[in-house]
Amino acid sequence: MITAKACFLSGQSERPPSGQSSRFLSGQLGVSRGIVSKANVVLQHAPDLVDPVISGASGLNEAYAVAQENKAKANSAEVQLARLREEDPELADRVVEGELTLAGAWAERTERVEEDKRQRRVATRLLDELVPPLAQARGTRTFSRYDPAYASGEPITRETIAHAMTALAEMDQVWQERDLP
Questions:
Q1: Is the pLDDT of residue 29 over 60?
Q2: Which of 21, 45, 72, 175: disulfide with 180, CB 3.0–4.6 Å?
Q3: Global pTM?
Q4: What is the pLDDT of residue 76?
């Protein structure tokens, strides 16, 4: 337990302050790696039992059993539902109402998060491609040279310009709200 605690306190869960691995130290001290591994589980899931184990008031095996129980509880359905309620209350309500299983709700949550990431990537790429060239065209007389006859797609209309201006105003508002540069 002392070896595991030294590794933990050094901020390098697998390395004590000297830089030597807990595996090396356990070998030097004649302590099995399995015991150090158990001690690490106690450190993570039952930290209140660390000092009693070190002082001999409690055995490592007993502390390890409690730590295993704590670890299991952390992954229990109640804890998962509470976490889901924090992250996505609508999905948690559907679980409580019996519309979804907890596993199904987490799968849907994961899909939603991944879809949100995908949409953010697409939006970022689109804005990265559109806004800088528009900003560069400002003041270059580019707009006065526009000729609908040369348009590669639908010609630009006043309505298109109005929509673009609205989009840029919305973009400016979002940038201000998010305090972006």
A1: yes
A2: 175
A3: 0.51
A4: 86
